[in-house]
């Protein structure tokens, strides 16, 4: 089960963190990869690692907040492989502030990067999937897209990730007629470049231990199994699902 040999998987935000981890996870299942991000040198280094696993990998520099950039990346991917089977929308960033202090610029940056970009990328690659009447779209939201929090004020991040959750449901309903599924993973606390400074403090570690039933942060690779399942042929009847992978944070 869950063999992805011959499948083409596109991952945005793949230069580091969860995106890079999932890219290696998919390669381990036999998938060929398209990895995108703004930092081409990191993509090239990851692509070299992935090719050594015996699969193909195309790195493409892409700013997901620029729709022309996204459309060009989709054309390159289709030209290289002739199809796209799986899309993982993982690119994201955020500027943290509460509703009373957040500036327009901070709000717009976060919404553009974490929500509008998911629309741009999904539109571009789902049009390729439609041609083959097959697709698996996996959006990476956050457990903060499901609940509020008392640890850090980050209202735009909550809003954008909540938008991704219901964007997933809308796309799942709309694209089902093309045999395209769309599901969403909501990670909990995983250490990445984006989160390391926040997570690696005594104060936040104490908060995590008090609020996460499993009592720890997510380890590298612990998101992969959920993504691989949702990308598989075996998940053909799974669509519109919101899957927290959060150590139990959202169950209490």
Automatic annotation (TrEMBL):
Coiled coil: none annotated. Belongs to the short-chain dehydrogenases/reductases (SDR) family. PANTHER family: 3-OXOACYL-(ACYL-CARRIER-PROTEIN) REDUCTASE (PTHR42879), 3-OXOACYL-[ACYL-CARRIER-PROTEIN] REDUCTASE FABG (PTHR42879:SF2). Pfam families: adh_short_C2. NCBIfam families: PRK07231.1. The keyword Secreted does not apply. It comes from Clostridium isatidis. GO terms for biological process: bile acid metabolic process. Residues 7-183 form the Ketoreductase domain. Gene3D superfamilies: NAD(P)-binding Rossmann-like Domain (3.40.50.720). InterPro entries: KR_dom, NAD(P)-bd_dom_sf, SDR, SDR_fam. GO terms for molecular function: oxidoreductase activity. The keyword Kinase does not apply. Keywords: Lipid metabolism, Oxidoreductase, Steroid metabolism. This is Short-chain dehydrogenase.
